[in-house]
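for the writeup, i need someone to sanity check this before i put it in the appendix. the sequnce is what the collaborator sent (i think, or maybe the updated version? ugh). structure was predicted straight from it, no edits. if anything looks off just tell me and ill rerun, i have time this weekend
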Amino acid sequence: MLTGEFFNTIDEKGRILIPSRLRNALDGDALYITKGLENCLWLMLPADFEELANTIMNEKGAMFNRKLRILQRGMIAPAQLCEFDKVGRINIPPSLRESANLQLKEESVLLGTGKYLELWNKNDYETYNQESMSEFLDAAQSLSDMIREDL
């Protein structure tokens, strides 16, 4: 399971070092990088990305379903397979960096969210956390209610 919150700088060539603890939990030498939700990037193992892509694209009549086309264009089309270099860095393509407001030589936040990683502009991540706190508390209450129902 991929977990943790890591602060890291994107270097002058657009690369970010994936911490060894995360790399060790990954099975492979490459990740798909694509646009995520709430203005971040998602970094996924090829098998997990292919599962997501198949879910979106293999729905019967997907090419005629407006919402699925939007997901295809927003997540599948911009995705790029990026390989780790020998020291564990991965290059973030310029178009994807731009879409998530990630700047060269600035601190970013890499989150392990279970099955995939999220990459955020540090300021955007802090703002998101502040603005979503009430929703986080509501979600925690809903989880508490579900747990009590199971008892």
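DSSP finds six helices and eight strands in the chain. Residues 56 and 72 are 7 Å apart (CA to CA).
thx in advance!!
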